[in-house]
Amino acid sequence: AQSVTQLDSQVPVFEEAPVELRCNYSSSVSVYLFWYVQYPNQGLQLLLKYLSGSTLVKGINGFEAEFNKSQTSFHLRKPSVHISDTAEYFCAVSVDTGFQKLVFGTGTRLLVSP
Amino acid sequence: DAGVTQSPTHLIKTRGQQVTLRCSPISGHKSVSWYQQVLGQGPQFIFQYYEKEERGRGNFPDRFSARQFPNYSSELNVNALLLGDSALYLCASSPKWTDEDGRLYGYTFGSGTRLTVV
After folding, report:
1. Is the Cβ pair B106, A34 closer than 8 Å?
2. Which of residues 25-54 of A touch B (CB under 8 A)?
C-alpha cells in the first residue's frame, strides 16, 4: 500500500525567506506525485504534479518540487514566500491500480509572517 | 469554464438523518471522485466513478453510497449519520484515467461541502 509522510505539521517562516516543505512516500511501484494547497475554508488547488520526465517540476505561484526516487521524497520549495502563501499544503501519491486514487499526507501548515 | 461545483456549501444535520451531496464536474470530465476531509487531516478517498460506473471504493462503511448520472454529475449519499461524519466533503473531476501517453491526469477539486452532524 502507498503512504505519504509530511514530516512537519507546521512551518513558520518570515516573508521573503525561502521555504521547503518535506514529503516522503512509500510505494513498491512507480508513483505519480502531487502537491495541493488549501486556503482557509476552500477546496484543494493543484500546485504541481510529477508524472514522469524531469525530476524538477515547476508549478504555479513560484513553487517547485524535486522528485528523488532513491530517497522516495518529493519536497516542495519556494525561494521567497509571501504573506499570501499562508495555507495548508498537502502532498499526495497516486498509483494506477485500475482507478485513480490519491493518498494524501496529513498536511503542513505554512505560516508566513511579516 | 466553470470549475467543479458542489452543493450545498454548508449543511447541518442531526444524528441518524440522511444527507445527499451533489457535484458537477468540469465540462468534458467523465471521472468524478469523492473525498472526506476531517478537520486537521488530509483528505481520504471514498469513491471514484467513471462513465457512470463505480471504479473504486475506499475504506468507508456501507452507509456511504454514490452514483454518477449520464451528464457525469454525481451524488454522494450518507445514511444514518454519525457525529464522526462531520467533515468537508470534496468532489474532484478529471477527463479520464490517462492521457494518450498513458499518464495519469491530476484531479481538479471543488470547494467542498462542509457537513456538520449534531
Report:
1. yes
2. 32, 34, 36, 41-46, 49, 51-52
